[in-house]
From TrEMBL:
This is Pyridoxine/pyridoxamine 5'-phosphate oxidase. Residues 172-211 form the Pyridoxine 5'-phosphate oxidase dimerisation C-terminal domain. Its EC number is 1.4.3.5. Homodimer.
Amino acid sequence: MKDLSDIRRDYNQGGLRSKDLPDSPFKLFEKWMDQARAAEITDPTAMVLATVDQNGQPFQRVVLLKRFDESGLVFFTNTGSRKSQHIKDNAKVNVIFPWNDLERQIAITGVAEPLSTTEVMAYFATRPKDSQIGAWASQQSSKISARGVLEGKFLELKQKFAKGEVPLPSFWGGYCIKPDSFEFWQGGDRRLHDRFLYELNGDWQVQRLAP
């Protein structure tokens, strides 16, 4: 077994104090997102999405946050994908933003609700044309024999849509995660990290958690 126990580092970029917490977790989320973008970390909008299948087996994958406000966090995907099938059976999800360079992470639990076709179409129209064609070419999560099959399908569709707009696939959509909890984690000196949990109970209640 490979021993990795000697890999460690100090966390000293600063703390998070209760006096600095806003009433709404969305305000702190927006502040931290703005700071992550300003720091030019890689893929600040990337979030690890966890779902659970019918047997209780958890699955995780990275998706990209496309917009957010007080109503929730929005991402888009193939509605025939494994994640979408899980959400259909159990809409409770968890996402985490692992901003390691800033010694921060945000974990969010909530319920994923499908977006309307109008909302999906409006976003799909803003995607680069190759990305639109890529959505058509991939039956996400299905088994394929080789990469060449995928590339061949993409080239076939690129020729088909060469002279016109790419229509919205019937199997492509999106979700809005309606949060019921946010946990903000800030690395701290001597492993005394700062953790604050916001939970929705009528209004937002916040508590400090032991690291």
